[in-house]
Design a protein that fits this description.
Length: 590
């Protein structure tokens, strides 16, 4: 009886926040209107922050380099390969998913868009993270050779031999946090094409290709969950949009507006599961163990950058939630590279984003303070970050009875942060050798858009001169040697919205013409090396020698993907590019 009274009080209190949550839950659009639904969204597009102010890097590093501190920890290494290649038959299967034999070195091939399950966010698989295989952490001064080994430890490269406009993509990750809070995912889905006329490809199939980069913060669980399921959520919505278009359009392709709406719906559905449905499940279970399972991805947060390429239309749709960035590199008629941003950074320093938030929360002076939402969160759009989305009542209840944070004193009319992305559409020209760079904001703190495109151009030039140069010579016309500056293609109104490189000033180095170097086979690794100092091997070694949490003062987690478009061979296979992939990546694919 004495236990029943407090338990009755506890359960009686659950109803109030639970009902409040239900009122604010995102409502899913019906299948019939998903392809044409419009979202009311405003187009969103060098002072150094306190945590990045200049400290004595070398005093910090070499003061401890003399003594090497070893300590062991429980390693949670998992050979998780983030790349799934999905292939569908010409006729979309109506039955359950079937497994097929692999077409490439260990990369799993699955059949059918019907396999893209989004039914239960938490019963599919545990939230997991790939970390270094070593069970030790070492604090020591890295030699240039050791620095190179660290740069290449997590690099991957894949050759896309499907003859559908994409030749290759490279990816690399460099942690600053421990474990890294960034993540990424890639997927290829072969789909039937039933349209006619416009593309003259009746009866063929096409590829949906996805590349995702996720910049986590306040933990790694939200970005890891995005790696596991975001592409599936978006592909499900796109599948509905394409089915509707088959009945309504002779081309069999949905409009750009319909694709944009589908991608937004996929993002919002997933964030609703992470932020709101997780609370319902926790309240229903009413245990701290359930809270630990369901609430962790809601309490941390993540930006998301997802690119979707349709090989039939050759359109690239880029959905951006947060401040990760994608840029397009393309040669003009004179052979010069042009850098075209495909996204705009969504932060409190973006005038459009600030105006959107002030319009949604009138009278709240501090909705943006010091360039941050309520003075705390820099990105204005993100997954998770429930403390900026839950009501004060729910936040306080979760903190008191489960696991949560004290809500901000400035919290009045949540939600302040949304996962709804801004979607851009770009016509890709594979015959021109287009490439796209996707990266978390850590790269853009070190390099400008122009520098990134120029560096990839230099890298392509170097590869065309090498032993395997025919691969590049056959697909990309060789031009004269590249030199800065290159053309920047950007609307003037967005110039003040993009972050600018500030790390060189913090590191106390000068921007010299000869600071870049080309020595990596992986284009993404090449970018990261030059972001960290390039030709200044001493600086590269020093920055990579710093360990968490001190390294975070000087460099962020880095995740970079480089996608190369071109009319390559059609072998039907996706293979790992061994010369540009880490040994452990090759082994995990055998």
């Amino acid at each position: 009886m004495t236990r029943a009274i407090p338990y009755a009080i506890l359960t009686a209190r659950i109803g109030i926040p639970y009902r409040a949550l239900c009122r604010s839950t995102y409502r899913n659009p019906t299948i019939h209107n998903i392809g044409v639904r419009r979202f009311n969204i405003h187009s969103a597009a060098n002072a150094i922050p306190v945590h990045m102010r200049k400290y004595s890097l070398f005093a910090l590093l070499f003061g401890v380099a003399g003594c090497r501190a070893w300590y062991s920890h429980q390693s949670q290494s998992e050979n998780i390969v983030n790349n799934d290649v999905l292939a569908a038959k010409t006729n979309t299967p109506k039955g359950p998913m079937k497994n097929a034999s692999t077409q490439s070195e260990g990369i799993k091939v699955t059949i059918g868009t019907e396999s893209l399950s989004t039914d239960d966010l938490y019963n599919e698989e545990p939230i997991s993270k790939r970390v270094d295989e070593s069970g030790k952490r070492v604090l020591e001064k890295l030699t240039p050779l050791q620095a190179t080994q660290k740069l290449r430890r997590n690099e991957e490269s894949y050759l896309i031999g499907r003859g559908r406009g994409v030749m290759r993509y490279d990816v690399v990750q460099i942690p600053s946090n421990d474990p890294i809070e960034d993540d990424h995912s890639e997927k290829i889905i072969e789909v039937p094409y039933t349209g006619t006329d416009a593309f003259n490809q009746t009866g063929t199939s096409g590829d949906w290709m996805f590349w995702g980069v996720y910049d986590g913060h306040s933990g790694w669980t939200t970005s890891a969950k995005l790696r596991q399921v975001l592409i599936n959520y978006v592909a499900r919505e796109l599948n509905s949009a394409y089915k509707n278009a088959t009945m309504e359009s002779s081309t069999g392709l949905p409009s750009n507006e319909a694709i944009s709406a589908a991608m937004k719906t996929g993002f919002l559905r997933l964030d609703n599961e992470i932020v709101n449905e997780s609370v319902k499940k926790t309240f229903k279970a009413n245990t701290k163990l359930a809270a630990a399972k369901y609430l962790t991805p809601a309490l941390s947060g993540s930006c998301a950058l997802l690119s979707f390429y349709d090989s039939i239309s050759k359109l690239l749709h880029v959905a951006c939630t947060g401040d990760s960035r994608a840029i397009l590199g393309r040669r003009d008629q004179d052979g010069k590279w042009t850098a075209s941003p495909l996204t705009v950074d969504q932060t409190g320093n973006n005038p459009d984003e600030e105006a959107r938030l002030r319009s949604s929360h009138p009278g709240e002076e501090h909705v943006i303070r010091n360039g941050r939402v309520l003075g705390g969160l820099e990105p204005t759009r993100a997954f998770g970050d429930a403390s900026y989305k839950w009501s004060r009542e729910i936040s306080e209840y979760v903190k008191e009875y489960f696991f949560g944070r004290t809500p901000s004193k400035l919290l009045q009319t949540p939600p302040y942060v949304t996962a709804e992305p801004v979607v851009s559409t770009t016509q890709i020209l594979p015959e021109k050798g287009d490439f796209v760079v996707m990266a978390t904001d850590g790269l853009w703190e070190m390099l400008s858009n122009e520098e990134v495109v120029d560096l990839v151009g230099q890298w392509i030039q170097k590869q065309s001169e090498g032993i395997n140069g025919d691969f590049w010579k056959n697909e990309i016309k060789k031009s004269e040697k590249f030199s800065m500056p290159i053309t920047l293609n950007i609307d003037s109104q967005n110039l003040n919205s993009q972050k600018t490189p500030i790390r060189q000033k913090q590191w106390g180095i000068k921007t010299e013409n000869e600071r870049f170097v080309v020595q990596d086979k992986n284009a993404a690794t090449h970018l990261v090396r030059n972001a960290l100092g390039g030709n200044n091997s001493d600086l590269v070694s020093a920055l990579l020698s710093l360990t968490a949490p001190y390294s975070r003062r000087y460099r962020d987690d880095l995740t970079v993907e480089v996608i190369f478009f071109g009319n390559g061979e059609n072998s039907g296979e996706v293979t790992i590019n061994k010369e540009a992939s880490a040994t452990k990546m090759i082994k995990s694919n055998l």
